[in-house]
Structures are given as structure tokens and as C-alpha cells.
Amino acid sequence: MSHRPTAPALRAEGLVKTHYGRGTPAHAVRGVDLSVARGEFVAVTGPSGAGKSTLLHLLGGLQRPDAGSIRLDGECTDSYSEARWAVERRKRIGIVFQFFNLVSDLSVADNVELPALLAGVPPKRARAERRELLDELGLTGKERSMPGELSGGEQQRVALARALVNHPPLLLADEPAGSLDSRGTREVMRLLSRFHDRGQTILLVTHDARLASAADRVISFFDGRIADDAALDAAPPHRTGISGVLELRD
Amino acid sequence: MRLPLLALLARGPAHGYELKQDLEQLLGSAYPQPNVGQIYVTLGRLEKQGLIEGEEVEQSSRPNKKIYHLTDTGRAALRAWFAEPEDEPRVRDEFFMKLALAPQTGLADQLALINKQRRQYLNTMRGLSRLAAAENRDNRIAHLLIEGAMLHLQADLDWLERCQEELEEPE
């Protein structure tokens, strides 16, 4: 594998994707260049229908672009087959979705271990990894539960454990708090920040600015294009900067 | 700060420094620390208005301190405060005027204005997220204050999005 240590974790050039359904063609992604450095946490925000989920699907190989190319760790993926993308999604790319997409008739433990076993990890190690992650995510004791018995927030944490069990260099998150309440949103935010602090590269798609503000960089996506790409302040919060928002009146 | 101080005194008499500490404890690090001088000035004004009354208490090794209690007039003012709903927060009119007037001046681009404003809001949002993460998890009042600020900001960001959608559409 041509693993270049200096290459960005993800690089997309000239991505285009048009959906042809009934009616007029929908230009979901219309020429996107994007680079995500290793260890970076990038959020893509924009109104629904702006094409941001399509963009994430292209970056994870869940859909193929009409034009443009994608590099993972400097390696060109243009010639990847579906099967090859499936392997990448087990090893190099973890994905979490809005609706969790857990296997409903497998236990929590099996949901998390499955991708490890499919990637050829010995069962004993898969179990150890699963235990550690569930513990970390506050799900100890839920191993034998079925996904349907868990709250939305808990299911999303299981999905996060499943996405990270093979230590993928890149985590893609598609509206991970989209079906959670305020508390669940905060929880997801806290966990993404924690994994990011440990060096996890994350690309997050969300319409929720609260969630996006956990990222180092926010890309505003409009009508299939990048409208703005802003690095957020790395400095700790400046008291006076936000005090105006919080100040109670005299 | 007048009415919050009155409200704290509704529980019982207290001196200025105690009130500062109570306020800090209630609102946590989220609230810009009230300065003690400002509290004394406000207490002085409240006393002049007859809403509270102060009583000097001698201290052996330190200067006297003044313990305040709520008067009947003060209690009535507090009741009136609770009885009335508050005004709505207003749309950021200054930004809106910039946005509305930019095309006529030829001095600024509307989409650039929106992007700049969005960056500002996002940075503030990030600051608020960090404050929330740093705040004691058990201080529900402090968390509600931060969350309220975040939700307002979220609404402002949604509105910027609407402006952008509307202005990007060819007429």
C-alpha cells in the first residue's frame, strides 16, 4: 500500500454527482475540491438538500462520482471496485449514520465485533476491542441488549463503537445527531471531540451548528458547492468574545 | 443586575460579597463574573430607591460590613418583575441593514457579508461549546444559560442560511 505519511487523510478533486430520477436531474455535488489533513476535524454544514450527504457518500465510496477523483492517504481510489470499497470501509474508513444502521437481530456486542471479525481480527482480540470501546462509550452492561431495546443516543454510541473498532484512520459521520434529542446531541459532540483529541481524523456532515462548532474547520455547503471554508479559532474561549452573548442585562 | 440582587435578598439578608458569591455559584463560569464594585454600586442605588435597607455590622478586625434586607417596596418590585413576560430578543438589525444596503453602495458583497457573519457566529458557538464542556455538569442553571445562547445562535445561523439560499437564486 502506498501509504504516504505526508499526504492528507482525504483528498477530493473536481467531484461531481448528479442524481437522475423522475423530473429534472438534481445536481447534488457540482465540482468539489476538498482536502482533510490527518488529525483534522472538519464539519460540512448547509441546508438540507444542499448535497452534503451525497458528498459524504462519495467520500466513503457508498456512491460513485460522475467525475472527479478521491485519494485516501495519498492513494488514488478511482479504480476501486465495490468490493474494494467495502474493504476500505472496514479498515480505513469508519462511518456513522443518522439512523444508526445497526443490525437489528444482532446483539450490541455482535454488532461491534462483526466488522472486526470480517476484517480478519482474531475473535479474542475482537472481543477485547469491543469491551474496551463499549466501556469507553459508557455502554458496559448493554452487551447482550438488542439495538431495539436501546435509546437513540445509546444506539448511536454502539454505531460509533462499530465504526471505530478497526481503528480506521478516517471517521465519516453523516448527521450523527440528526435523530437525537438535545442531550443525545451533546453526548455525540463530546465523544467526537474526545476521539478527535486523541488524533482521530473526522469528517462530519451536519445541519446542526452546535455540533459543527466542535470541529476545527467548518465548510459551508450550498447548492452542491463549497461556499465558505473557515478554520475556527483554536484559542481557548475569549471571555469577552462570548460574554456579550451570555451577559444578563443591567 | 438590580432585580437578580433583589431576588437573592428575598431569601434573607446578606452582604454584598455574599451576593456576588451566590450569583457566581448559581450561574457558574458561564456568566461573566460580576464585579464586586458594580454590586456595591447597585446595592447603593437600590437602597436609595427604598427597595432594600442596609444595616452596618461591626467587625472586630475588619471594616464594618453592611447587611441588606428587602423592604416591602422591594418585594413588590420583585413581584412585578416576575409578573411581566420579557420582550423578544431582536433580529440582529445592524447586520440586517448591512445586508439590505450592500448592493446599493457597491462597497460590499452580500455573500461575503454572510460568510463573515457566519464565521463570527461559529467561533462564538465554539467558545460556548467549550464553556459548556468546562462547566460543572451538575450546574443545570449554568448549562441552561449556555444552551439558550447556543440555540439563539443556531437560529441566527439558520437565518443566515436562508439569506444565502435566497440571495444565491438567480432572479
UniProtKB/TrEMBL annotation, chain A:
<dbReference type="GO" id="GO:0098796">
    <property type="term" value="C:membrane protein complex"/>
</dbReference>
<protein>
    <submittedName>
        <fullName>ABC transporter ATP-binding protein</fullName>
    </submittedName>
</protein>
<dbReference type="InterPro" id="IPR027417">
    <property type="entry name" value="P-loop_NTPase"/>
</dbReference>
<keyword id="KW-0547">Nucleotide-binding</keyword>
<dbReference type="Pfam" id="PF00005">
    <property type="entry name" value="ABC_tran"/>
</dbReference>
<dbReference type="GO" id="GO:0005524">
    <property type="term" value="F:ATP binding"/>
</dbReference>
<feature type="domain" description="ABC transporter">
    <location>
        <begin position="10"/>
        <end position="248"/>
    </location>
</feature>
<dbReference type="GO" id="GO:0005886">
    <property type="term" value="C:plasma membrane"/>
</dbReference>
<dbReference type="InterPro" id="IPR003593">
    <property type="entry name" value="AAA+_ATPase"/>
</dbReference>
<dbReference type="InterPro" id="IPR003439">
    <property type="entry name" value="ABC_transporter-like_ATP-bd"/>
</dbReference>
<dbReference type="InterPro" id="IPR017871">
    <property type="entry name" value="ABC_transporter-like_CS"/>
</dbReference>
<keyword id="KW-0067">ATP-binding</keyword>
<dbReference type="GO" id="GO:0022857">
    <property type="term" value="F:transmembrane transporter activity"/>
</dbReference>
<dbReference type="InterPro" id="IPR015854">
    <property type="entry name" value="ABC_transpr_LolD-like"/>
</dbReference>
<keyword id="KW-0813">Transport</keyword>
<dbReference type="InterPro" id="IPR017911">
    <property type="entry name" value="MacB-like_ATP-bd"/>
</dbReference>
<dbReference type="GO" id="GO:0016887">
    <property type="term" value="F:ATP hydrolysis activity"/>
</dbReference>
Automatic annotation (TrEMBL), chain B:
<dbReference type="InterPro" id="IPR036388">
    <property type="entry name" value="WH-like_DNA-bd_sf"/>
</dbReference>
<dbReference type="InterPro" id="IPR036390">
    <property type="entry name" value="WH_DNA-bd_sf"/>
</dbReference>
<dbReference type="InterPro" id="IPR018309">
    <property type="entry name" value="Tscrpt_reg_PadR_C"/>
</dbReference>
<feature type="domain" description="Transcription regulator PadR N-terminal">
    <location>
        <begin position="5"/>
        <end position="79"/>
    </location>
</feature>
<feature type="domain" description="Transcription regulator PadR C-terminal">
    <location>
        <begin position="91"/>
        <end position="168"/>
    </location>
</feature>
<dbReference type="InterPro" id="IPR005149">
    <property type="entry name" value="Tscrpt_reg_PadR_N"/>
</dbReference>
<dbReference type="Pfam" id="PF03551">
    <property type="entry name" value="PadR"/>
</dbReference>
<dbReference type="Pfam" id="PF10400">
    <property type="entry name" value="Vir_act_alpha_C"/>
</dbReference>
<protein>
    <submittedName>
        <fullName>PadR family transcriptional regulator</fullName>
    </submittedName>
</protein>
